[in-house]
DNA sequence: TGTTAAAGTGTTATGTTATAACATAACACT
DNA sequence: AGTGTTATGTTATAACATAACACTTTAACA
């Protein structure tokens, strides 16, 4: 997915982003973020505990992992997938521009996640339908249960 | 939401539907379904345990409620909302025609759920974007976090 | 009508995800 | 050093969900 080299670069970049507005990307936060990036997929908080132990021999209690994930989410470095109760690294960490609300395709077989941008027009159509029904969208992040082509090929 | 009269009619109808292909809508299943319909909103399995106790003085263990909800889902009488880990009665129980995949608007404040149909064209656009990304939609059920107008008015 | 296989339910244990509440450590600034 | 703030540790518990196995009811039919 990413080489160690690449990950270090991404982490450095993330650190700069945090610093730019006074947030601190501490050691533990780095470990969690690194593990998540390295895995290249959606992981639960408890998966991350195991990975940090495996990769870095660090025991991070569940409570801390949840707090760290919340921090990283606020920093827009990770996204929480409510459909799967899992977390993924933002696929645009290294870009500097602002992003719209992301849409996620979650492979139910291998947990790989693809972050895509859907046509603004499609989204605004959706929003329209929602408002017709007397609701307001809080969050236009869509999460869709999918199967990726690679898993589909394997099972065929 | 529904009068007792209406609920009884709906239950009777549901029972007929089940019978038509050899499934049984047992007493406990009726109690769970009634409670869900009566509430008019999305409830967790554990909410339903409480409601069945309250409404009918019946103690239904968690395990049974989950089994019953699974049965009702297979019968297309209820839908599972993965975003909220809750369940809602299908809003079309009494129709006899087949329905497409439903889309849900979930009010994050009061848990009311609206089941809407989104333009087929919007959905097929979505599907298209997904396939472009190398994924296949397993399930085009969308669940969207919203706030309903009534809650929004209250907070204003 | 009695036997039986399947379906439904009960029961207990356990797994998984998430948060509350409170204590301590580390850091940053004076 | 003193103080405020942020991060982390620790323990307990809430909330959601399933596994495994036993017992009971139902309907089906010899």
From TrEMBL, chains A, B:
InterPro entries listed in its UniProt record: FUR, Fur_C, WH-like_DNA-bd_sf, WH_DNA-bd_sf
One GO MF term attached to the UniProt entry: zinc ion binding
A biological-process GO annotation: negative regulation of DNA-templated transcription
Similarity comment: Belongs to the Fur family.
Domain of life: Bacteria
Binding, Fe cation: 98
Entry's cofactor comment: Binds 1 zinc ion per subunit.
Pfam family, one: FUR
Co-factor requirement: Zn(2+); Mn(2+); Fe(2+)
The protein's name in its UniProt record: Ferric uptake regulator, Fur family
Residues binding Zn(2+): 107, 110, 148, 151
Cellular component terms per the entry's GO annotation: cytosol
Organism classification: Bacteria, Pseudomonadati, Pseudomonadota, Gammaproteobacteria, Alteromonadales
Keywords tagged on the record: DNA-binding, Iron, Metal-binding, Repressor, Transcription, Transcription regulation, Zinc
